[in-house]
Amino acid sequence: MKSRLSIVLAALWWGSLTGLGFLVVPMLFTHLPSPAAAGAMAAKLFTAQTWLSIGCTMLLLLVLNKKEAPALSPSAQAAMKFIVTGLLLAVLVEFGVAPRIVSARANGGSLQLWHGLGSAMYLGQWLAAGWTLWSLSRVQPPQGY
């Protein structure tokens, strides 16, 4: 049961990052009348995505807790570091980079630098979520083989 729940959580995390970052936000910039309107909407969506990521990663950490599952599979052990990395990246983007993007936009600061850093960190979170999903969904051979 716990392995299925962990796969569902990892899939939700990775799928939401994929849908938002590679489909929804590019469509906003294509279809909304101005880049400013698209950017404002994208910022709200990225904030919602951050909270979804935090929820998925925290639940994954609870589900894969060694105290709860003493015989943690090697793939689940490997996934733990990527879950923590994704969680840290989500928090850093939301509370470290996003406010600087808003400030740079309002004050004429280095918007390109902060936007690039935020994009790189989002990509890192996407890779961490993907690796987590990949490692948790690996089929384990039956016992005794």
Report on the architecture of this protein.
The chain is mainly alpha-helical and 145 residues long. The chain has one domain (2-136). It contains four helices and no strands. It has helices spanning 2-31, 35-63, 74-107, 111-136.
Give descriptors for this structure:
single chain, 145 residues, mainly alpha, 4 helices
Helical residues, percent: over 70%
- Which residues sit in consecutive blocks of at least 5 with pLDDT less than 50? none
Please trace the helix and strand order, writing H or E for each element.
Answer: HHHH
Q: How many strands, what sense, and barrel or not for the largest sheet? A: none
What general form does the structure show? elongated
Tally of individual domains? 1
The averaged pLDDT comes out at: 89
Oligomer description: single chain
Separation, N- and C-terminal Cα atoms: 22 Å
Spatial extent as radius of gyration? 18 Å
Structural class: mainly alpha
Topology:
Elements (H helix, E strand, L loop, with lengths): L1 H30 L3 H29 L10 H34 L3 H26 L9
Short description:
By secondary structure, the chain is an all-alpha fold.
